[in-house]
Amino acid sequence: MNQAAAPISQSDDIVAIRGLRKSYSTLEVLKGIDISVKRGEVVVILGPSGSGKSTMLRCVNFLENFDQGTITVEGRPVGYKMVNGTRRPVSEVDNASLRQHVGMVFQSYNLFPHRTVLQNVMMGPVKVKGMDNSKARDIAMKLLAKVGMEHKADAYPGRLSGGQQQRVAIARALAMEPSVMLFDEVTSALDPELVGEVLKVMRELAEEGMTMIVVTHEMGFARGVADRVVFMDGGVVVEQGPPEEIMTNPQTDRFRGFLSRHL
Ligand code: ADP
Ligand code: MG
């Protein structure tokens, strides 16, 4: 689906990915991706391993360089901006400031092991935003309550279950007040009995109106929470639409096959 005609400045998309292409040396991983995410929208990305889902997410906060196309977050260019039809790099300062607006949670819990849960959540607002400690502490405690982890505020991450660590990682990302949250297979490494507690937090965030891009293999979450499902395969968007439509009535063999393997 090509939406490249919409001028960036007039778009109400929180995230707009247009014609995104990326190769790792000779391996072309993203072959022209177009995805738009509106405020409050929850977009679930499905696709087999190796289809480029993580690479695409990492491009959105410019953890990954890309070769062609544009990405904007709230209208601000990520990585490159177009000047008189030519793609020019955005300054590192602008990229860093943009990253503050993009919260990301990964498959592997990446909490700082030598900091308490509370310190992990306070760190961004204090170090990056220069917030004073008492205010940051108040905000962090509220967010820990929201993810059901305030009782572990003084614990170290190593003492927590994987599900608890992911909930803290979500609170830590929220502490920066992002305009969009990116989730990359955040439940894939968890023991099955811990998956539900993390999905519940994500579902609540979605219900509160958070704008989210969620890469997951949890079909129940896709069906129940997504406003739109995007199926990627081989570095392209193969199908997208409301979950009740495209998951019930897939239009391509590739998506049909994927769904039948993930029942
Ligand atoms: P997915 O998240 O859908 O499983 P990825 O975006 O992780 O897919 O990977 C897409 C392809 O890019 C895979 O073939 C993977 O091996 C390759 N790839 C990912 N990261 C790198 C890298 N840093 N260097 C080289 N190849 C990579
Ligand atoms: Mg991945």
From TrEMBL:
It comes from Sinorhizobium glycinis. GO terms for molecular function: ABC-type amino acid transporter activity; ATP binding; ATP hydrolysis activity. Residues 15-259 form the ABC transporter domain. It is a peripheral membrane protein. The keyword Acyltransferase does not apply. This is Ectoine/hydroxyectoine ABC transporter ATP-binding protein EhuA. Its main location: membrane. Belongs to the ABC transporter superfamily. Keywords: ATP-binding, Cell membrane, Membrane, Nucleotide-binding, Transport. Pfam families: ABC_tran. Signal peptide: none annotated. The keyword Phosphoprotein does not apply. It is found in: Cell membrane. It comes from the Bacteria. GO terms for cellular component: plasma membrane.
